[in-house]
Design a protein that fits this description.
There is one protein chain. The chain has about 120 residues and is an alpha+beta fold. It has a single domain (about 20-119), classed as Beta Barrel (OB fold (Dihydrolipoamide Acetyltransferase, E2P)), CATH 2.40.50.140. It contains two helices and seven strands, in the order H-E-E-E-E-H-E-E-E. It has helices spanning about 1-15, 75-80; strands at about 20-25, 35-45, 55-60, 70-75, 90-100, 105-110, 115-119. A hairpin with an 8-residue loop joins strand 3 and strand 4 (about 70-75).
Length: about 120
Amino acid sequence: MKQISLTLFTFFILTTAHAQTSIKLDEVNLHIGDSVSVCGKVADLRYFENSKNQPTFLNIGATYPNQQLTLVIWGDARKLFTGKVEDLLNKDICITGRLILYKNKPEIIIEKPEQISIQ
């Protein structure tokens, strides 16, 4: 009985920890620190191939510096994408991940391609 209770408790904690809250793009500032699912259009994209860690920045909702959300894909994660990341430009996408603030702007770090789906 003790083993079953422990297993159920562990399952509950893990399920709760990975729960995603679906939000609207204009609500991202209200959910900093939360794991969310949010959709929007990729307004612009920048790939810094010669920079440290080769970041790719996708600005959602508007072009930089007026974006509502920035997605960051580091070079190691970019290699996991089967298609070209640049093909996401001007596409409506949904993103899942933890919202953080970077220089007072909402951001999600993309660690694997499954965090992004094209609508």
